[in-house]
């Protein structure tokens, strides 16, 4: 990977002399406390757990990997060294499951000794364990967790200059391996993200012997075990930072030498450029926390590591599909979840188009029941989304009129069955609005957004209790199912 420098210079020269490059606006990056050690080639897919960022391994110079595990706490903007990797590694693929971080493969140095080791880091215990190795050694692969399994894609063997198109599936509970349908085009050093039950393999390099970066967007369906393709990258790229938030995947920097922050919208299969990163660099680690995009480390030259930590405050997307339903002295307002949101404001007016007064702040979930209304009066509602970057624009307006003789229409209910990692089964009989709130929370946590714990109000079988609540931790859930049914009139 890093030996390609001479050819990379040729490609850069070609870009400036023979190609038209669209300039990008500079966006605002906020500098944070640097890592304790400057590094590039940090483990693929930097992990987030309980509001902290885990950075594993990397190179401090060519042929000099380290065994560092550094943890960043954004609350006090500080770094802490944790228990070291079993061996120095760079380019390992990582993913998280059940409060444990798994590393797959990597390289012991720049030129050779690619490994097939699998290590498990117990976050609470701060300890490492060795697990069942992969069948083949590889470096610069990509990994994601889906439905209790970890999918490991592609990579290369630096020993034999072999690029893989394999899809290897690891079961953390049984410590065993199985295989999926191979990638149409084998790559390494690509971006990877999981959105709406699809896994996206973006760009990458397909040949260590020469510069063969790709534009390809290869999309894997783990349910059907099949591949499709998406709109290609605007330019070939590899060694970029990447993270997914909601329905979008964000790429940072890379070998195209443009130094851009790009956004891929999986809903309409389109690309856009948000701005540039400074300085330009490759082999960046990237992740998101509460909708904010973090860039960590990387290199500005062939052997120039950085310890930079920068964050882009990403204002959430404006909520859509606002609906208001009037009842007896109440109005229920619902909306679709917003990408990057950590909470919502609900605003109200008695005049169409406002001005609006905030009636609820930092609402978690995607519904709110307004009980401070008067029957017979028409109210107009808008909703905004919040995160650390600020507040979105107002949503579309919805109106409703509460009436003493009208009750909200009866909605469907469902049995929510949650299977925990310890085998315990929890079952809840809930309205679909509550079910949808739970699903929104779960999808948010999968993208690194929202609280680690979800509260379920057990209003059924309440007896003489003032309230009954269950607290479900995201990392304790193996899977869940929803069984919707219709209430008889």
UniProtKB/TrEMBL annotation:
PROSITE patterns: FN3 (PS50853). InterPro entries: FN3_dom, FN3_sf, Ig-like_fold, Kelch-typ_b-propeller, Kelch_1. Residues 316-410 form the Fibronectin type-III domain. Pfam families: Kelch_KLHDC2_KLHL20_DRC7. SUPFAM superfamilies: Fibronectin type III (SSF49265), Kelch motif (SSF117281). Keywords: Kelch repeat, Repeat. Gene3D superfamilies: Immunoglobulins, Kelch-type beta propeller. It comes from the Bacteria. This is Fibronectin type-III domain-containing protein. It comes from Paenibacillus radicis.
């Amino acid at each position: 990977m890093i030996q390609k420098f001479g050819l990379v210079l040729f490609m850069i020269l070609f870009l400036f002399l023979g190609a038209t490059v669209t300039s990008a606006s500079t966006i605002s990056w906020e500098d944070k406390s640097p890592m304790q050690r400057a590094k590039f080639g940090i483990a693929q897919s930097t992990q987030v757990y309980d509001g902290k960022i885990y950075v594993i391994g990397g190179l401090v110079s060519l042929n000099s990997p380290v065994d560092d595990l550094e943890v960043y706490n954004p609350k006090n903007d500080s770094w802490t060294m944790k228990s070291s990797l079993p061996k120095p590694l760079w380019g390992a693929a990582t993913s998280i499951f059940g409060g444990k971080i798994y590393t797959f493969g990597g390289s012991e140095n720049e030129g050779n000794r690619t490994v097939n080791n699998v290590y498990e880091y117990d976050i609470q215990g701060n300890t490492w364990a060795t697990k069942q190795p992969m069948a083949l050694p590889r470096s610069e692969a990509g990994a994601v967790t889906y439905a209790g399994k970890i999918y490991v894609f592609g990579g290369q063997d630096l020993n034999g200059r072999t690029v893989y198109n394999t899809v290897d599936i690891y079961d953390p509970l049984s410590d065993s391996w199985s295989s999926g349908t191979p990638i149409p085009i084998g790559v390494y050093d690509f971006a990877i993200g999981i959105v709406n039950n699809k896994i996206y393999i973006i760009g990458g390099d397909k040949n260590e012997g020469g510069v063969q970066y790709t534009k390809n967007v290869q999309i894997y369906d783990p349910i059907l075990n099949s591949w499709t393709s998406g709109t290609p990258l605007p330019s070939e790229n590899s060694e970029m930072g990447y993270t997914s938030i909601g329905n979008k995947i964000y790429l940072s920097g890379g070998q195209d030498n443009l130094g851009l922050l790009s956004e891929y919208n999986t809903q309409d299969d389109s690309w856009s450029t948000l701005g540039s990163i400074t300085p330009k660099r490759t082999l960046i680690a990237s992740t998101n926390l509460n909708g904010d995009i973090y860039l960590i480390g990387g290199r500005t030259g062939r052997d120039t590591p950085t310890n930079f930590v920068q964050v882009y405050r990403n204002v959430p997307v404006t909520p859509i599909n606002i609906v208001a339903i009037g009842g007896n002295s109440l109005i229920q307002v619902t909306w679709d979840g917003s990408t990057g949101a950590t909470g919502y404001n609900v605003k109200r007016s008695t005049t169409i188009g406002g001005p609006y007064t905030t009636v609820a702040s930092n609402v978690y979930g995607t519904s709110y029941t307004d009980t401070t209304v008067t029957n017979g009066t028409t109210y107009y509602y808008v909703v905004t989304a919040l995160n650390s970057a600020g507040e979105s624009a107002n949503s579309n307006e919805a109106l409703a009129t509460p009436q003493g003789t009208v009750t909200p229409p009866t909605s469907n209910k469902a049995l929510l069955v949650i299977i925990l990692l310890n085998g315990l089964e929890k079952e809840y009989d809930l309205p679909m609005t509550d079910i949808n709130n739970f699903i929104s929370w779960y999808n948010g946590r999968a993208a690194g957004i929202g609280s680690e714990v979800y509260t379920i109000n057990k209003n059924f079988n309440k007896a003489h209790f003032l309230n009954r609540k269950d607290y479900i931790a995201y990392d304790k859930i193996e899977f869940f199912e929803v069984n919707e049914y219709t209430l008889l009139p």
